[in-house]
Amino acid sequence: MTPQTDTEAVEAANTAFYEAMERGDFEEVSDLWLDDGATPISCVHPGWPVLSGRGEVLRSYALIMANTEYIQFFLTDVKVSLGGDVAVVTCTENILSGGPAEDGAELGPLVGQLVVATNVFRRTSEGWRIWSHHGSPVLTESDEEEDEEPGA
């Protein structure tokens, strides 16, 4: 087995983050965030204010996991940029999620969403850890808007 390049290691850490979210594994999500006691972490979920510090960031993930029955991420356009001990990953999160089931159903209604994300990682003695996450919703035009002719 050949050792991973830094790019491969960052890609693996990024993938592990999304897979832990899909499994609802709060402990693993927590372990993937930087925790050096000195560097504050930050997170912006789509439509949320900036969350700063380990307590606020991890509380947000606990809330999301507690209120999301099902979530699956299909990552596209993944790009890794390295600069020493810092890496930036940009990607599109194609998200399929569902809330709690109602009226005896097995699964709540599923909703699809596109989010563009930037994940900043820092190299630590334990491997690459997330320093910051920023997700922004992708706003798409409706079919009606696309069908309209200019000047109509």
From TrEMBL:
Domain SnoaL-like as annotated: residue spans: 10-138
Listed name of the protein: Nuclear transport factor 2 family protein
SUPFAM superfamilies in the record: NTF2-like
Database matches in InterPro entries: NTF2-like_dom_sf (IPR032710), SnoaL-like (IPR037401)
Protein's organism: Streptomyces lateritius
Pfam families xref list: SnoaL_3
